[in-house]
Amino acid sequence: MNNSTSTGVYANGNDNKKFKGDRPSCSPSRVLHLRKIPSDVTEAEVISLGLPFGKVTNLLMLKGKSQAFLEMASEEAAVTMVNYYTPVTPHLRSQPVFIQYSNHRELKTDNLPNQAGPTPMLKSELKRAQAALQAVSAVQSGSLALPGAPTNEGTVLPGQSPVLRIIIENLFYPVTLEVLHQIFSKFGTVLKIITFTKNNQFQALLQYADPVNAHYAKMALDGQNIYNACCTLRIDFSKLTSLNVKYNNDKSRDFTRLDLPTGDGQPSLEPPMAAAFGAPGIISSPYAGAAGFAPAIGFHQATGLSVPAVPGALGPLTITSSAVTGRMAVPGTSGAPGNSVLLVTNLNPDLITPHGLFILFGVYGDVHRVKIMFNKKENALVQMADASQAQLAMNHLSGQRLYGKVLRATLSKHQAVQLPREGQEDQGLTKDFSNSPLHRFKKPGSKNFQNIFPPSATLHLSNIPPSVTVDDLKNLFTEAGCSVKAFKFFQKDRKMALIQLGSVEEAIQALIELHNHDLGENHHLRVSFSKSTI
Question: Where in this chain does the record put each RRM domain (predicted)?
Fold first, then answer.
């Protein structure tokens, strides 16, 4: 007997047929199907995969089948989660987990049909899942700390800081600072990295913008191999809460301070490493070619050699040859490795503007240029300051709804957005924002690096003048077409407030329209997405 319906799935003992047909679907759903979960994984660990993207409202664990169903509070949150984990396979207990949309629209675990109740084993699993969900709910309301998971307010357990200590074992190939930056940037904005040798081991300290990013990077990467069967990552939280970087070179880098000296005369590698590897970036290896060597992950781009994938290697990772050979890319000059231009498709051609894309994508990096296609105005190119910012914007914005359409963002084949030639018809569709005063990340050490969050229905407002009231701000957002659900000023600083709108789409459109809005008294409103709820 099959108790699933077109809109929901009942948790009962007859799962064999029901879940076998839950294949990848083109249609997004707030219910996500997780496959190949470890048999010893806990409910809290599965829930923690969804926490960065929004509230988790239900969970069904099928440990006998190594599967789980996770229900998010909204479809937007589920879309953001799938888009984030598509290029970077998440790991639980060092095992890759695969996530896809479920065919089901909702999980119904608390309304079981009388004629086919759950088995005792399933009852036990449901009970544990509900207990874990209640703990998460308490976390999100601020009344409880969930062991092993960051809270919704961003506070973490004692000993968890935004700084990770990384030891690399079985170091058969050199691992550069750039390789580390490329790997760890998949989990959030990396602010600083320091590499060094201690006790004949290559180590690194890496600081994220937020402890939440450090938590998920550790959870996903600890125990993984950078290259096949070697260069194993051992990751712990550092006792340090911030790193002090003096030089920007091959050994250390502060990505928020482009003005730091290179420290000429400082060795780029510790003597033991230099002796072990010879000249930096060139090593004799079974896979060496004209480009030095290539990452031993699945397929060697530099040499063209196919290598069998080894369990534990970072399969989804693609490392550029510049990262491998140790050539540092300085942000703001040559850019991070890879492409900084995004192709944005499925836009609403009647409502989208270059300025609107500049404001939206500017939440995740400094936008230099925007071009809406002259003959196909639902497509646009957005050039970010560097590739890591482009990746961040793509992860957070692809799949979000904007002006009634689901926005798609991918890396473009173009390396830069070309400005129109003089006299060339353009209709104002190409704009250069490289010198805009509205860039959020141009100032070294800006706090904005620590406040990068996925789109959410709750917006953070700042730079509010004393004369502006609650009603003034509510009316401002209402006149912009938003439904205001909740509002509160910060108790300690009335220049800031949170406003909760009817949906994530409303919040995105409000941010585009009202960021930098003139509130009078020489105050322009600053709008960003919040990780908090009211």
Answer: 30-114, 164-240, 340-414, 457-532
Q: What would you report as the CA-atom Rg of the chain, rounded to the nearest whole angstrom?
A: 24
Question: What are the phi and psi torsion angles at 486 (to 5°)?
Answer: -160, 155
pLDDT(291) > 50 = no
**pLDDT tens, position by position, 119-151:** 555 566 666 667 666 655 544 443 333 333 333
Beta-bridge mates of residue 487? 499
- How far apart CA 360 and CA 341 sit, in angstroms, is 15
Q: Kindly write down the DSSP assignment for every residue of 75-134, as one continuous string.
A: HHHHHHHHHHHTTS--EETTEE-EEEE-S-S-EE-SS--TTSPPPHHHHHHHHHHHHHHH
* Predicted pLDDT at 367: 96
Q: What CATH code is assigned to 31-101?
A: 3.30.70.330
CA distance 354 to 356: 5
CA angle centred on 523, ends 520 and 526, rounded to 5°:
125
CA angle in degrees (0–180, nearest 5) for 140-143-144: 85
Intervals of CATH 3.30.70.330 along the chain = 31-101, 163-254, 341-432, 453-529
Q: In what order do the strands lie in the sheet with 497-501?
A: 484-489, 497-501, 458-462, 526-529
Topology of domain 341-432 in CATH is Alpha-Beta Plaits (3.30.70)
Residue positions counted in the chain: 534
Question: What confidence tens digit (pLDDT) does each residue in 392-451 have?
Answer: 898 889 889 999 999 999 988 888 999 888 777 778 899 999 999 999 988 766 677 777
* DSSP string covering 457-478: SEEEEE---TT--HHHHHHHHH
Burial of 240 (0-12, 13-18, 19+ CB in 10 A): middle
117-134 burial, b if ≥16 CB within 10 A, otherwise e? ebeeebeebbeebeebbe
Mapped to the 3 state alphabet, what secondary structure does 486-521 carry? EEEECCCCCCCEEEEECCHHHHHHHHHHHCCCEEEC
- Strand order from edge to edge, sheet including 163-169: 225-227, 230-237, 163-169, 201-208, 190-198, 252-254
Asked whether residue 323 carries a pLDDT value surpassing 70, the answer given is no
- CA distances 14 to 64, 103, 425, Å, are 13, 17, 63
Please name the helix (run of DSSP H) or strand (run of DSSP E) that holds residue 347, with its range, or none.
Answer: none
Q: Where does the pLDDT of residue 293 fall: very low under 50, low under 70, confident under 90, or very high at 90 and above?
A: very low
Please check whether residue 486 is in contact with residue 422, taking contact to mean a CB–CB distance below 8 angstroms: no
pLDDT at 135: 57
Task: Evaluate the CA torsion angle 428, 433, 435, 436 in order and state its sign.
Answer: positive
* Fold type of domain 163-254: Alpha-Beta Plaits (3.30.70)
Q: Are strands 9-10 and 107-108 parallel, antiparallel or unpaired?
A: parallel
Class of domain 453-529: alpha beta
Residue 169 has pLDDT above 70, yes or no: yes
